[in-house]
Amino acid sequence: MQKRIGFLSFGHWQQAEWSQTRTPQAALSQTVELAVAAEELGVDGAFVRVHHFARQLSAPFPLLAAIGVRTKRIEIGTGVIDLRYENPLYMAEDAAVADLLAGGRLQLGVSRGSPEPAYRGFDAFGGATPEPRAKLDLFMNAISGAGVVHADAGGRPGSAMLPVQPQSPGLAERIWWGSGSRNSAKWVGEVGLNMMSSTLLLEDTQVPFDELQAEQIGIFRDAWRAAGHEREPRVSVSRSVLPITTDLDRRLFGRDANEDQVGWLDGVISRFGRTYSGEPDRIAEELAQDAAVAAADTLLLTVPNQLGVDYNARLLGTIVDDIAPAIGWVRAAASAAA
Fold first, then answer.
1. In this predicted structure, what is the pLDDT of residue 129?
2. At residue 146, what are phi and psi to the nearest 5 degrees?
3. Which has the least CB within 10 A, 44, 153, 256, 320?
4. Into which CATH architecture does domain 4-148+162-337 fall?
5. pLDDT tens-digit profile of 32-43?
6. Domain coordinates in residue numbering, the chain
7. 201 has which bridge partners?
8. Residue 103's CB: how many other CB atoms inside 10 A?
């Protein structure tokens, strides 16, 4: 199994004195610049989190298109888009355009989404109905080239069905569903999407987070095989990995407990994954023992984007040089040659 690593940015901005990302323009441009730097380092993916009514990244497709035209190799994607807010056909057009501009590198994560700051904000977007999985069905039909609307026949619906345009070949095999439980993981495997497992699970079985997540991945793969899908699926997990190599790193992250957390979210007991912070060699040893990281093919590294491009490029450089090889990752050949 080829191991890939990517960064995942929430794209926060605020006016705090310490923040290197004080405006939305800075959050967007720095995300593009970090993707360019990550590609040069050999990182495999640049992913963005999508939230609405908050000071962080929201509209993903213009940003992904910008990253796509500035880079040549790195995968670009989302983790995840909340389908409750989306028009499936408009989204299908946007996704195809971004994918074509990137030369077929889009890895699009979608899901029901997580709690948002606005009360029923999706109603304001006009996106409350249908249910997210029904929207997913329409979106998948649209990007697969199916006819989704009747042609006009003199002011009446004709018999011909028209697909959205443009179409981007292969995009349908690069759609991921964000799964937050073992039950949803089984459904994802049955329907044949790739799976993104988050840094939290909406359940707790009193076992460490990585073991619960590895069980979720196993359920997904079993359901995939039972459904008879022909291609190999992909699975990603997210981790906060913060190597400490300078006094600044130590001041920022040296006090983290590096432990799972359990709490209430969406009305259920949920388990949150630990942070990996400390000396690079210690992180490498501990990450190599992470059962879910071992089971997944893709590791998404959440970055503290408000510390700026230079800081995060250095952080990613330490990870690819001193930590990622411990989990079986090999630098992309083109980047290694460069």
1. 66
2. -70, 150
3. 153
4. Alpha-Beta Barrel (3.20)
5. 999 999 999 999
6. 4-148+162-337
7. 271
8. 13
